[in-house]
DNA repair protein RecN (Homo sapiens), 343 residues
Amino acid sequence: EFTPHDRVARWLDEHAFDAEDTVMLRRVIDANGRSRAFINGTSATLAQLRELGEMLVDIHGQHAHQLLMRPDAQRELFDTHAGLVAEAANVARAWRVWRDATQAIDAAKAHERELQLEREKLAWQLAELDKLAPQPGEWEEVSAEHKRLSHSANLIEGVRGALDALSESDEAMLTQLGAIVSKLRSLADYDAALGDALASLEPAEIQLQEAVYSLSHYAQRLDLDPDRLAQVEMRLDALHSTARKFRLPPDTLHEEHAARRAQLAALDAAADLGALEAAQAKAWDAYLADAKRLSKARAQAAKALGTAVTAGMQELSMAGGSFEVALVPLADGGPHGLEQIEF
């Protein structure tokens, strides 16, 4: 296991391996001599295992100089010397964007039928939810209203009974308490010790008055409304049956409505070949712009490096020798630019 540095992380991304906090290289050889290679648990070729391994471990020995013969090593040395590491990283990033756009097109074409079936399913579900139009918190509100309306007769009877006992009957609590408070006020003129009892009863009288006002206001709004009860029951049944059809809790219908709308939009985007191809073309143009800038900078640096190294060779008993950095064009470009660098 190794901890990846930036160069390794870029390599993993370019070759579609998971870029984790650690890198695990594994080679398994069975009893018949067949071998398999793995990078972070994903199957890999031996060439990929070797290439990544050389990035992770420096091997010092009589053949270490042979690493300089590898094109990727020459490219990295050259870009580092020329101060073009950031520019090269931009090109690699733009290449990955184009690669991902290309893979999205390939996936859309390969799974066109599956995407169409999934889209039809989502479109049907969304049509059902659009028709229902569930609102935030509606299940709780409708359930509470249904409970109130279905028990309205009991509520009316209970509230009226409470009002009668508190303020409307001949022996109403508020009337009796008012008489007691009035009597104690007059008696308190004779003995101040009654003040404590009076101080406790006066707030109670006020609270009873407020309770009577609140209950009276509630009773005025409370009414038997069979039509409204029928409407609420229909809405409650619609919410419940739709939730059962989609196998969802009824109180999540609004969130699921929004989620399915987003899923359908994402599926439409994934299946829209025109939009995907436009994104691919845009990504390729961005890649070419970055790659051409890098090529221009490399050409200037290659000429300067070749001149400097050739001059140095003349002072090292290598008279007549020359050093050249060749920029060999690639037919289709790649993650490292439009050319291969060779010394």
In short: The radius of gyration is 41 Å.
